[in-house]
């Protein structure tokens, strides 16, 4: 149910705005498939979800000299603007060598940069609420990477909800239509989107 606010006889409906992306640029990424499931769950619960593909941002490696000479790259500005206008984040993170992917860390580093007019540092992340998930061919489903991602986000003022889902054996976990073979896992991932939406309604509505 979408929470409603009464103002002078009229009803204003609050719709949480969520930015969702996977920490991978691979075209057939398991985590890109997973984030779409969570996004569907959030939309069904009443949220407006913007799915972002990090490949489209074409971000260079973070370089302070490059930032000083050219400013924020267009892709980083695009994502930053989306996040500034949003209430929450959903991130599906692959695990690389027991941590997060280089492209995900690089994206966080670029978007975290303070810009002219910001009232505070980390403006795109400050006071956001997030849920995390992962998919990996490994037995732990990417859990070790989520530990690091949770720590990073917590240190840049993001409230990360405790619930998370890690899909192991991801190379055999999805059906051709992009849903998960296991109905319980499908429901759990959709549930992450629902939980984030419901929490945002309580916090912002």
Q: What's the SSE pattern?
A: EEEHEHHHEHEHEH
Assembly classification: single chain
How would you describe the shape?
Answer: globular
Q: Identify the CATH class.
A: Alpha Beta
**Helix-and-strand structural type:** alpha/beta
- Count the beta strands: 7
Percent helix range: 40-55%
- Calculate the mean pLDDT score and round it: 93
Indicate the low-confidence ranges by residue numbers: 1-7
Give the biggest beta sheet.
5 strands, parallel
Strand numbers in spatial order across the main sheet: 4-3-5-6-7
As for the CATH topology, it is Rossmann fold
Termini separation comes to 12 Å
Strand content: 15-25%
The figure for the number of domains is 1
Q: What name goes with the CATH superfamily?
A: Flavodoxin domain
In DSSP terms, counting alpha (H) and pi (I) runs of 4 or more, how many helices?
A: 7
> What Rg do the Cα atoms give?
17 Å
């Amino acid at each position: 149910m979408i929470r409603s606010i009464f103002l002078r006889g009229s009803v204003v409906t609050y719709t949480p705005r969520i930015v969702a992306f996977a920490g991978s640029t691979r075209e057939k990424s398991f985590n890109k498939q997973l984030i779409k499931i969570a996004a569907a769950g959030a939309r069904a619960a009443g949220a407006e979800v913007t799915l972002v593909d990090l490949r489209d941002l074409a971000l260079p490696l973070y370089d302070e000299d490059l930032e000083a000479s050219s400013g924020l790259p267009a892709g980083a500005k695009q994502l930053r603007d989306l996040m500034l206008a949003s209430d929450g984040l959903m991130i599906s993170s692959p695990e690389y060598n027991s941590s997060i992917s280089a492209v995900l860390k690089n994206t966080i580093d670029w978007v975290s940069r303070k810009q002219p007019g910001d009232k505070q540092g980390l403006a795109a992340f400050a006071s956001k609420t997030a849920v995390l998930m992962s998919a990996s061919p490994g037995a732990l489903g990417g859990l070790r990477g989520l530990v690091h991602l949770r720590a990073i986000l917590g240190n840049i003022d993001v409230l990360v909800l405790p619930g998370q889902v890690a899909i192991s054996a991801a190379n055999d976990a999805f059906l051709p239509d992009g849903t998960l073979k296991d109905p319980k896992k499908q429901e759990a991932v959709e549930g992450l989107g629902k939980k984030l939406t419901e929490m945002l309604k309580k916090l912002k509505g």
